[in-house]
Write a structure and sequence with these properties.
By secondary structure, the protein is α+β, with helices and mostly antiparallel strands. It has 4 domains: 131 residues; 59 residues, SH3 type barrels (Roll); 82 residues, 2-Layer Sandwich (Alpha-Beta Plaits), CATH 3.30.70; 137 residues, Sandwich (Jelly Rolls), CATH 2.60.120.10. Helix content is 50%, strand content 18%. The chain has 17 helices and 16 strands. The strands form 4 sheets. A 5-stranded antiparallel sheet has the order 4-3-2-1-5. The two termini are 36 Å apart.
Length: 500
């Protein structure tokens, strides 16, 4: 019975295979890519076999049957074969083509291959099913292409510049770039028409590829993701250049966002009657950390210069001494240091004078431990000069929580909460600190509610900073193996599927 149907009416079995293939496609739409291909290929092969049995070879011009209905039925079967084959081929390219290449190049070449597959299917349909001459189609399409080329000149320019950018690969998704028209951000996507960028203001900027290709592009993510920021500091002309350079260097290194390697560059640019100009270039681990680091650096430079009694210069008018010298003419450097330490700055000058008289000076060489971990702190320390590093243990490694420079303090957390210190403080450079004993600190806390509130707020912020640094360290240790991730994604439904 089946053999008679195969030999006498194979077209009916071909139609059955086509319907079966449509059902298999519908059923596997939400399945993994490998599952969809496995369920779609067997019905297609059976469909091809029955077409050959019916002498309906899709890539050969078949004689037209006299009956119009039979002619439409035959052409429909062969047209279905061409586009069914194109659909399966496109799925093969989409899921398994160019897997080892970069994301942008992979997407570009896959789009090209899929477009080529459907173009071949369309030409095969016109040539072997509709029996139209290819030469006439090419001539007609050439004239149409000229008209469309003039009408879509800008859009086609973006497409061709997109091809150039994808082939040249000046940047890729995830890189931070800056264009000479003032646009900068992180590249999210490169497609045929435009480049999508995420700015520091968390806005999406879509820049046409023609504009990108004609712009000067600064890639901040290669060869290293470290990003440099340059500022100019003007000091009073009465400042010794080496002293100003040393204070600025300590202030910059005191920011935890500033990298020690590559080292910051501090150059005395000029010396004049108006000011001493010092160019400073420092580096942050990522491009988007530049603004936060810049705020920290300016804050620390201001406090370091103020604690040292050094005034800022001017680039336009001749320098004049500051007439308001209530802080700079403090009786001693310790009182001036307290005036530029935020937690002490709100106290009356008489109170700062009493605190300064009770503090003791201690000096440490580079590499020396200032405060050990696991002890009960008996003093609060204020940094007068140098750079100190505060670290905590994360497994078998030391994780830097923050760095400190002039007008920063530490040790108060253990005194206020009466707990054991969990951090260790080490001098990165030669440093001088002033120590405030426990009894004196407790007296200030009891007599100055504003001081106690400010100190508690600052200590709470430091605890959050410490927890955030430890969390970042833990997240960095828990990355999964890329080979395992790739293998598991082969049989897992992807986030973005393309069904043909």
């Amino acid at each position: 019975m089946i053999e008679n149907i195969i030999s006498e009416q194979p077209e009916l079995l071909a139609v059955g295979c086509l319907l079966l293939g449509l059902c298999a496609t519908r059923w596997s739409a939400d399945r993994a890519p490998a599952t969809r291909l496995v369920t779609r290929i067997p019905p297609f092969l059976a469909f091809t076999y029955f077409l050959f049995q019916a002498h309906q070879v899709p890539y050969v011009v078949a004689p037209q049957p006299p009956d119009a209905l039979a002619r439409v039925f035959s052409d429909g079967l062969r047209a279905g074969w061409w586009f069914w084959a194109a659909s399966i081929s496109a799925n093969l390219v989409l899921r398994f083509g160019f897997r080892g290449s970069r994301i942008a190049a992979r997407r570009f070449f896959i789009d090209m291959c899929v477009a080529g597959v459907y173009l071949v299917a369309f030409i095969g349909f016109i040539t072997f099913v509709l029996n139209f001459p290819v030469q006439g189609i090419l001539v007609t399409s050439g004239a149409i292409a000229v008209v469309l080329g003039f009408a879509l000149q800008n859009s086609l320019g973006d497409v061709f510049y997109g091809i150039v950018l994808n082939l040249g690969k000046p940047y890729r998704a995830g890189d931070w770039i800056s264009l000479d028209n003032g646009v900068d951000g992180q590249v999210l996507e490169m497609n045929w028409r435009a480049t999508h960028m995420l700015t520091l203001r968390r806005d999406i900027v879509i820049v046409p590829n023609s504009i990108v290709a004609k712009s000067k592009i600064i890639v901040s993510s290669t060869p290293s993701r470290a990003h440099g920021t340059m500022i100019t500091i003007l000091l009073a002309p009465t400042t010794f250049p080496t002293t100003g350079r040393r204070l600025i260097a300590d202030a910059i290194h005191g920011s935890p966002l500033v990298l020690m390697v590559p080292a910051p560059s501090i150059v005395i640019k000029s010396v004049s009657r108006e000011a001493i100009a010092i160019d400073v270039t420092f580096f942050t681990p990522r491009f988007n950390q530049g603004p936060d680091a810049l705020n920290q650096v300016h804050e620390k430079i201001f406090r370091s210069l103020g604690a040292a009694g050094i005034e800022l210069g001017s680039s336009t008018a001749p320098w004049q001494p500051d007439t308001d010298r209530s802080v700079k003419d403090a009786p001693n450097e310790v009182e001036r240091l307290l005036a530029y330490t935020p937690v002490f700055s709100r106290l009356p000058s008489s109170e700062r004078t009493a605190i300064a008289d009770s503090m003791k000076r201690e000096a440490f060489d580079a590499g020396k431990t200032v405060m050990q971990r696991g002890i009960k702190s008996d003093s609060m320390y204020v940094v007068a000069s140098g750079v100190l590093s505060c670290t905590r243990e994360a497994g078998e490694r030391e994780v830097e929580i923050t760095r400190m420079s002039a007008a920063d303090h530490f040790g108060a957390d253990g005194l206020v909460s009466d707990s054991i210190t969990s951090a260790k403080v080490v001098a990165l450079t030669a440093a001088v600190v002033y120590r405030l004993e426990r009894n004196e600190l407790m007296r200030i806390v009891a007599t100055s509610p504003g001081f106690a509130a400010g100190l508690n707020t600052e200590l709470a912020a430091r605890r959050l900073l410490s927890l955030g640094a430890m969390k970042i360290q833990d997240d960095g240790d828990s990355s999964e193996d890329s080979l395992t991730s790739w293998f598991s994604s082969l049989f897992r439904r992807p986030d973005e599927t393309v069904d043909s």
